[in-house]
Specification:
The chain is mostly helical. It is about 90% helix and about 0% strand. The longest helix has about 35 residues.
């Protein structure tokens, strides 16, 4: 909903309702395409991989997420320190 609301609020104009409807249809079809693609990948990978492989993929994804979180925390702290010094 956040992407949908942001794009539509930027594209809303009383003088051109067709552009607004086109932007809304584009956002909704993009979300639908993403969801169908993601569900297809999950369905295929469940058939191909066994439980152990799925577990290790989940662990690797979790570690990557923790790594990204650490990076963003580091960036936040360095920016905060720069802000405090200024």
């Amino acid at each position: 909903m956040s992407v949908f609301g942001t794009v539509l609020s930027d594209s809303y104009n009383d003088s051109n309702p067709v552009a607004f409807a086109l932007a809304a249809a584009g956002v909704l079809s993009g979300i639908l395409l993403h969801d169908v693609g993601l569900l297809s990948i999950v369905a295929v990978s469940r058939r191909v991989l066994n439980r152990t492989a799925i577990k290790w993929v989940s662990v690797a994804a979790g570690l990557l997420l923790i790594g990204f979180a650490g990076y963003f925390v580091y960036e936040f702290i360095t920016d905060l320190m720069d802000y405090i010094k200024a």
